[in-house]
Amino acid sequence: MASSRAVAGRDREVVPTRILGGDLAAVLYSALREAANLLDAAAAAVYLLDEDSGELKAAMVGGSPPPVFMLPGHMALDAPYASSRALGAGAVVVMTDPDPQIEDLYDLPYYPYAIAAAPLIAGGRRFGALSVLRPETHGEYGADDRARLGGVGDRLGRALAALVRHGAEIVPGHMPVMVPIARADPAECDYHVAGDPPWGVRGVPGSAGLSLMYPLRRLSDLLNQATTMDQVVGAARYCVMDPFQAKALVLASVGQGRLWVVGHSGDSSDLARNLHGSGLHSREPAAQAVRRRALVVSGDCGALAVERRHPDDGSPSAAYLPLVGNRHVVDLPYIGRDSVVGVCCLEFGGPRRLSPEERAVLTMMAGSVGPAVERVELTRKRHVLAENLQKRLLPPVLSESPRLTTTARYEPASATSEVGGDWYDVIELPGGRVVLVVGDVEGHAIESAAVMGQLRGAVVAYATEGHRPTAVVDRTGRLFARLGTDLLATCCVVALDTAAGTAEVALAGHPPPLAMGPDGGVTVLQAPPNVPLGVSVPAPCRSRKHTLVPGSVLMLYSDGLVDACAPDPTAAATTLLRTGSAAAGGNLEELADRVVAQMPGFHHRRDDAVLLLARYEGSDVRAASRTGHLHLQGHDLLGVKTARGFVDDALRAWGLEEMSEDLQLVVSEVVTNALIHAGSDVEVRLRVLRDNIRMEVRDSDSEPPVPSAFSLTEEGSAQAESGRGLFLVDALASAWNSSPSGRGKTVWLEMAIPGT
């Protein structure tokens, strides 16, 4: 709104008002109507100078939607836009005029409207600028157009100067006054080709423009609530694809000089396949849209209508809109070279004309979709980064004693992209001793992960030196106090003597571990709770010893594994262990998967969770000696041959040479898959159980292997090649699966021993 300050007499005090004075309103409205009709403009605006802020602010905007919503509410005096440039130059300025100051920063206009502005200067005073927008279809502003606009600007400047001489001070308000301009009914505009329903109701002034603006406003509401890419695609389908009667929608992001499809809807498989991975320097319309920062159509990149490439061949037409990230809306929106984050592709079933109004609305829609895609992609990348950072701080491979089988799971919080401070570790010591550790640093931030890494290193160092669990907790607590953090941490340390079958438990404010015997009964390994790490107390940590039965399974966990609102977390964890064991049998990997799958709120957890399982095999010397371990370097060209030799040597030493051929074939397939796809070191482990042989192959790739059937097509055959060997594994093994294991996965299998 603009305001005027009227003075009734020379001795009267100037009183400010927020009401647009009648004389000022009449002057501004008359100038807007005259300029719009003379230049056949779709919208016009008067900007008045605000001396206090040093900006031009819109006082009155006239026209119909959508172009009236493209005009900014304010702009800096030195901004490279038509209105501010006109006032600074004291002459009519058209936005397409060359300007060496902005030539290297800005490209072609983003909207299908051309803007021109005339300065408002009279009586030695600068009042502001008069700006008009008209569709590019009307052609460029010629000399006559510039003269007409300049004349209207001169007359308006003199009228404002006259108001000042009569005691009025012209200053802009906080918001502009919106007024219609008597022009042709927007509902009569050719918004669609013949046969398509028009926007709005014909004959009702403003109906078409308002109908066009509704999906734009609805799109903004839906995108503000979107937290996933599926929700962004759903909003785009409802508000962009369906209203514009497109048959396919594809959203792609820009990265590493290429376009990558992040979502699609409708009959979009071909469009998505051609777009995914395409280079930004290609001649494809999508790449041109990104480079030009403007709407591009198939067939003719400079046309205003969407046409078929060959009108008689029945091929679909398509429109490609660049997706701009967070940016400031200014005069005609010109965009910097680094602000395009992706492209929105719409494919139609046939030829499709887009009016300037439709093109403008599509462009504004792309301006809303762009920040949403950028935000969701940033959140996804942060979540992946947080998860990878957390996993890198965890042990790459669990140490394993001949008398102790272990496995672990780490589940990041699914409702936040921040990192957590949960960790686990298995530390093998001389003399058949093994230390199991689970800890939890409070919070979800980089500091939590950093502190976790320091604590894990301290626990490993103190345990490796041979200290008892109580000393490990005390020393780690003293080190923690010197880290200068306000965070607290809990910890559970269990020292196992696998020869004697004893377990010493020390807690630092952490839930106690559980032990499930061979009969399925679950016991809580109670110990004094002590205080969390970071709390200074004079009393030393206390522990308690327990005796384990061969075949017992220990479960250490963080509190994220159970419901935070559970009245008895230990009882809840006991239920998870008992229920998972009933379904998994004696398979430790499957037991871990079952326990994790039962976690409450699996897809909406706000806390990380770790699970560490260890099965005490007993002190039988013969059973302990029938284990084997092989470490292969990543990309080892002789790795498969080495693995086959390792299997053959181990089985012959154990008197099981009749199983060597089948197990060598299986290890070849699994190790080959790990070396090719994981690109990391590979661990191969063999263990003879009561009636079968168990083999585990561990790598750092968390993606599970998927068997692929044979395909007759060249593309399908290439995709299936890497997973075809898993059918051999499935045929030869009595059981097999893939489980996430710390920083990667474990492919395990079991083969029955003949005669058992």
Low-confidence stretches: 1-20, 99-109, 184-190, 192-197, 299-314, 328-338, 709-723
The count of β-strands is 29
Characterize the biggest β-sheet. Answer: 7 strands, mixed
What integer is the average pLDDT?
80
Radius of gyration: 36 Å
What is the share of helical residues?
Answer: 25-40%
Write the layout of secondary structure elements.
Elements: E1 3-5, H1 22-39, E2 43-50, E3 55-63, E4 74-76, H2 82-89, E5 93-94, E6 113-122, E7 125-135, H3 143-165, E8 169-171, E9 177-179, H4 207-225, H5 229-241, E10 248-255, E11 258-266, H6 269-275, H7 285-292, E12 296-297, E13 317-324, E14 340-348, H8 356-392, E15 404-411, E16 421-429, E17 433-441, H9 446-464, H10 469-481, E18 489-497, E19 502-508, E20 514-516, E21 522-524, E22 543-547, E23 553-557, H11 569-584, H12 588-597, E24 609-616, H13 621-625, E25 627-632, H14 639-653, H15 660-677, E26 682-688, E27 692-699, H16 714-720, H17 726-732, E28 735-741, E29 744-752
Parallel strand pairs: 3-9
Antiparallel strand pairs: 1-8, 2-3, 2-7, 3-4, 5-6, 6-7, 10-11, 10-14, 12-13, 13-14, 15-24, 16-17, 17-18, 18-19, 19-22, 20-21, 20-23, 23-24, 25-26, 26-27, 27-29, 28-29
Helix pairs in contact: 1-3, 4-5, 4-8, 5-8, 9-10, 11-12, 14-15, 15-17
What does this molecule look like?
The chain is α+β, with helices and mostly antiparallel strands. It is built from 17 helices and 29 strands. The strands form 6 sheets. Strands 2, 3, 4, 5, 6, 7 and 9 form a 7-stranded mixed sheet that branches. A 5-stranded antiparallel sheet has the order 11-10-14-13-12, with helices on both faces. Strands 15-24-23-20-21 form a 5-stranded antiparallel sheet, covered by helices on one side. Helix 4 (207-225) packs parallel to helix 8, helix 14 (639-653) runs antiparallel to helix 15 (660-677) and helix 15 packs antiparallel against helix 17 (726-732). It is elongated and about 105 Å long.
